[in-house]
Design a protein that fits this description.
The protein has 14 helices and 18 strands. The chain has helices spanning 52-88, 103-112, 130-143, 188-201, 212-215, 232-236, 251-254, 261-268, 285-299, 303-312, 347-354, 360-371, 378-385, 453-466, and strands at residues 7-10, 29-32, 35-38, 149-155, 158-165, 167-169, 174-175, 182-183, 321-322, 335-337, 340-341, 356-358, 389-390, 403-404, 409-413, 416-425, 428-435, 440-446. The strands form 5 sheets. Strands 1-5-4-18-17-16-15-14-13 form a 9-stranded antiparallel β-sheet, with helices on both faces. A 3-stranded antiparallel β-sheet has the order 8-12-9.
Length: 467
């Protein structure tokens, strides 16, 4: 018989932020044929006889153990509450982030809680609403093996769902956790776009500058005639006409191998453009590879260093970054489908187009930082969300969208402004959705490529809006 999905769920609403949360370590309650029997670890359940003193000692011992359990629950609640608060409060200072558990810690935790293999652990307030609706929806997906990964949903600073299911590493039976690190593929593009905007604000480049002077001689020896009119803006909004290197023969074979930015650019620098620069929207990760090269050119620093100095460190995104190899220990391994491992991704091949790793907590913190103008000045934040290129009739990337901004698809959901971006690369699928006017953030990360993360995220955003 196949195993059921591993599910870990943490759901909370406003009451959670004022101290109400069911402890995760509540003792098991079993039922006998004649009635309920509460089994408390450490209690001697031998017959006490009729000795009243024995009964009194037993009651006193139970009372002492009950107080110890309550203190333990309160400590657990405080730790979980702190993590929940950190996930939705970007500006909070002097706190420690919740950690992405290393593999050995995850395995120990799973072994200590055997019920988590087949059952979920959730905190849901009575009275229904979005948390319970989301809980039912996610549990149903997990039960049907339609979701493996991690989810975080927040609305106006309150966590509606913090949920994880399935395995981060099937070979070692290690479950996904809410703090597990995932590769997020093209969600990287909103970070690279913001880096360019911030460097523009500092006067290091101009959005409408031609790209060639920034690339010679480090990345290309001479600039093709077709490339000379291309601007930095056109790289970021997919109107450069540069062919997508991910569609070239051998891309997926090379994805596991280390490379250099110059070598990647050499694959497409002399290919014909798909359309004249600035005329047609056509998705191409090549433009973002070139944008990453320009970031390195003007800062004289590696892309990962610039990302850390400009974004992840100031915003306290402690589990977000770029590595030329693999993400830190504890990241979810990628799968085509459940049970079908995908080849590893070398970060240098993905680079500034698809190379980011992060957690659901960090992405929600990133989204909310836009609303608090912590990412950049208000005018730059507004620019990042402003439509730059019209989508084709069927939407950008064949997804619901009217235009493309700087690393964000532009859409509406039930009349509300929606900005989002998908991520899809060997073994991984991701969606980061943000409704800026409603302060709703939905992050869905999966280490199973065939997962419909965009559809799941849209459904969760709709529940958050309607409740």
């Amino acid at each position: 018989m196949p195993k059921g999905p591993k599910v870990v769920g943490f759901l909370a609403i406003s009451a959670a932020l004022t101290g109400w949360i069911v402890a995760l370590g509540t003792p098991a309650v079993s039922a006998s044929a004649r009635g309920a029997v509460v089994t408390v670890p450490g209690v001697d359940h031998r017959a006490l006889g009729d000795d009243p003193r024995a009964h009194e000692r037993h009651r006193a011992g139970q009372h002492g153990r009950h107080r110890q359990r309550e203190h333990g629950r309160q400590r657990e609640n405080q730790h979980l509450l702190r993590d929940v608060t950190l996930a939705v409060t970007p500006a909070q200072k002097d706190e420690t982030d919740s950690q992405a558990l290393p593999y050995n810690s995850q395995k120990t935790d799973a072994s200590a809680n055997p019920q988590s293999d087949q059952h979920s652990r959730s905190d849901v307030a009575s009275g229904g609403g979005a948390p319970e609706a989301i809980d039912r929806y996610l549990r149903d997906l997990a039960a049907r093996n339609q979701f493996t990964g991690s989810v975080l949903v927040a609305r106006r600073g309150k966590v509606l769902a913090r949920f994880a299911s399935g395995l981060a590493d099937e070979a070692n039976d290690i479950p996904n956790r809410p703090g597990t690190i995932f590769r997020v593929a093209s969600v990287t593009k909103q970070f690279t776009s913001m880096l360019v905007l911030k460097l523009r604000d500092r006067g290091l480049l101009g959005l409408d500058d031609p790209i060639c002077p920034y690339l010679i001689p480090t990345y290309i020896t001479t600039c093709p005639a077709d490339w000379q009119p291309i601007t930095i803006r056109e790289l970021l909004i997919h109107t450069s006409g540069i062919p997508d290197y991910q569609n070239l023969p051998g891309f997926y074979t090379m994805l596991s191998q280390p490379t250099t930015t110059r070598e990647i650019i050499s694959r497409f620098v002399n290919l014909p453009l798909t359309s004249p620069p600035g005329t047609t929207w056509k998705y191409t990760s090549s433009g973002y590879i070139v944008a990453g090269a320009i970031i390195q050119s003007v800062t004289h620093k590696p892309y990962g260093t610039v990302l850390r100095e400009e974004i992840t460190r100031p915003l306290h995104l402690k589990h977000t970054g770029y590595s030329r190899g693999n993400p830190p220990d504890g990241y979810a391994k990628g799968y085509f489908t459940v049970g079908s491992p995908a080849p590893p991704i070398n970060g240098s091949e993905a680079f500034s187009a698809t190379g980011l790793y992060t957690t659901t907590d960090d992405l929600v913190r990133w989204d909310r930082a836009f609303g608090a103008d912590l990412v950049a000045p208000p005018a730059t934040v507004e620019e990042a969300f402003t439509p730059q290129a019209q989508c084709p009739a069927n939407g950008c990337l064949n997804l619901p969208s009217s235009a493309y901004a700087f690393g964000w698809l532009v859409d509406t959901l039930e009349g509300h402004r929606l900005r989002y971006h998908p991520g899809l690369l060997t073994g991984y699928s991701a969606s980061n959705m943000y409704l800026p006017d409603d302060d709703i953030e939905v992050v869905v990360l999966s280490n199973v490529e065939k997962t419909d993360t965009n559809g799941i995220a849209r459904r969760l955003a709709t529940i958050a809006l309607d409740s």
